[in-house]
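Note to self: the last two entries modelled the partners one at a time, which told us nothing about the interface. This time every component goes in together.
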Amino acid sequence: MNELPIHSGLILAGLLFLTGLLGVITRRNILFMLMSVEIMFNAAGLAFVLAGAHHGQADGQVMLIFILAMAAAEVAVGLALILQMYRLKKTIDTDAMNQLRD
Amino acid sequence: MTIIFYIASLVALFSTVMVVTRKNAVHALLYLIVSLLAVSVIFFISGAPFVAALEVIVYAGAIMVLFIFAIMMLNLGKDSTERESQLMSFGAWIIPAVLCLILLCELIYVFYSYKGTSGSGSLQVIDAAQVSGSLFGGYVLAVELTGMLLMSGIVGAYHIGKEKKREYHRYLQQAND
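The predicted structure of the combined assembly is written out below.
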């Protein structure tokens, strides 16, 4: 296999991360916010794996495995929180959760 | 191999933008799966076949199913059946299907050109044996911590997601009704 363009890969990871960040900022549906967080995790893992492949080390892939496990735990807890929010407010709009506002 | 990388990254970027801009959650999930598959193709051609398989199995297989379960539990309204009938209309699935077809063609091309170019390239493939050797060699403490994190995640999700019965005193219950 030929050498992959590492700069383009890192730029792609940055663009994916930026898209996820924009999704978290702009969307008000909490399911889409959780999906955007997943996109950001995935972009970080892509940067890890590309850097590990660039240096020829296995450490990047190890980090991606840790990111996968953390994302699984985060999604489980986050979806349980979304279900409780839906039971409490009958909506998944984050603007409905404003009880801490004075 | 470079052109394969650029096509896969274009597919990943397009589908990710489509995830953020969709209104229907199931359509967004479909595009998110396409994005994960494209990133998995990038992993595969950058010499990491083990995490490419893990990305498909764990991310696109397990975590997305969790999302689908949550969406199904949230859409318990009376208009959910008619919304479900138009969920998979032609315009909804044709673009992800075309993107997946592009990725499939890339993967088939990479499989068939794998043996021909593997000797001459400077990029070595890091297989599962090396990854697991590093995982259970120097990172064994982090593996155990990850196990604890998963366990606490499961227990926490069970406790948070449990439907709690609210028990008031009868005076409070009258006041709340």
